[in-house]
Amino acid sequence: MTAVETRTLTKHYRDVTAIDDVDLTLASGRIHGLLGRNGAGKTTLMKLLTGQIFASAGSLEVLGANPVENPQVLSRTCFIQESQKYPDGFRPLDVLRIAGGLYPHWDEQLARELIADFRLPEKRMIKKLSRGQLSAVGIIIGLASRAPLTFFDEPYLGLDAVARRLFFDRLLADFSEHPRTVVLSTHHIDEVANLLEHVVLLDAGRVVLDEETETLQSAAIEISGRTDEVLEVVAGAEVLHRQEIGALATVTVHAAEHLAQRARAAGLQVSPVSLQNYIVHRTTTTPTTATSATTAAVR
Fold first, then answer.
1. How many domains does the chain have?
2. Average pLDDT, the chain
3. Angle at the Cα of 271 (from 268 to 274), degrees rounded to 5?
4. How sure is the predictor about 259, in pLDDT bands with cuts at 50, 70 and 90?
5. Beta carbons of 253 and 259 less than 8 angstroms apart
6. Residue 169 — pLDDT band, cuts 50, 70, 90?
7. End of a domain among 168, 193, 213?
8. Are residues 46 and 139 in the same domain?
């Protein structure tokens, strides 16, 4: 089944095109990664899919219908934003009580467990919470809502590594017991690489990658060694990234068995490329230089 489908979806803000002719299909019951640099259009896309803003052109279906002013869709959708605002006079327990009345599948026991896990001071005023504690409020709502379609937009700003790990573990455990569709937008790509089943990469409002995570994790290799030997091996290949330090070079290219074999036969080092580094290389368009190295990204 399909949770989300868009066709030529476009959103203009005056002279800025935030979402540009996007065709996208997200299958139900999977964890999807929505990745890209700041300003790539990720939050705008999620706001379109949750009916918070109107499209300039194109069409979209969420859970089989248009989400705009559609309570049957919106009650089954949860959107946890990066900078969620709450009334200053509220406490976390007030926010969670309201959330419990909004989502038909709300699990109060899970919410109580998460409050304890994140050590959230539920009776403290929202305006006195730290950035990490505010993030914990959103995470608890997103998980305890058990909404059939849940969007997390950079949900853990301010959380330390232990708390982020707790979120990932809790998300995976609850997803396994209560499957639903999750769309996760994050810059901590390596931390969530093992959670994501499918990746959509946005750049300047356009989809530049729409692929299974397993495929992307083996999409590129790094070849390292003496510069002249490395360049000879990769001649004619599409170079995603190149770094030179003195007489040594490391070049990232799309994975190909013949390249790996030639590199190893020449005594060069061949290494896999992490999902995060691959995503970075695919969205880097301007060469950069440093005092100790010259780095060039070639598209």
1. 2
2. 91
3. 155
4. very high
5. yes
6. very high
7. 213
8. yes
Q: What is the number of other CB atoms lying within 10 angstroms of the CB of residue 96?
A: 22
Of 213, 233, 252, the one marking the end of a domain is 213
**Shared-domain flag, residues 60 and 186:** yes
- Pairing assessment for the beta strands 31-35 and 198-203 based on DSSP bridges: parallel
Q: How far apart are CA 44 and CA 146, in angstroms?
A: 23
Residue 2: is its pLDDT beyond 60? yes
As a whole number of angstroms, the distance between CA 282 and CA 254 comes to 11
Per-residue tokens: 137: 């409020």
Question: b vs e for 54-66, b when ≥16 Cβ sit within 10 Å of the residue's Cβ?
Answer: ebeebebbbbeee
User: Is residue 76 located within the same domain as residue 222?
Assistant: no
Segment 55-105, tens digit of pLDDT:
999 999 999 999 999 999 999 999 999 778 888 899 999 999 999 999 999
Same domain, 260 and 239: yes
Domain match, 149 and 259 both: no
| Amino acid at position 19, single letter | I
Taking the C-alpha atoms of residue 115 and residue 203, their distance in angstroms, rounded to an integer, is 36
Question: Do residues 196 and 224 both lie within one domain?
Answer: no
Whether 157 shows a pLDDT value over 90: the answer reads: no
3-state secondary structure of 197: coil
How far apart, in whole angstroms, are the C-alpha atoms of residue 298 and residue 283?
10
- Examine the domain organization and report whether 185 and 271 are in the same domain: no
Q: Which token pair is 180?
A: 């639903």
What is the domain range of residue 274?
Answer: 218-296
Residue 23: strand, helix, or coil: strand
Residue-wise pLDDT tens digits, 193-231? 999 999 999 999 999 999 999 999 899 999 999 999 999
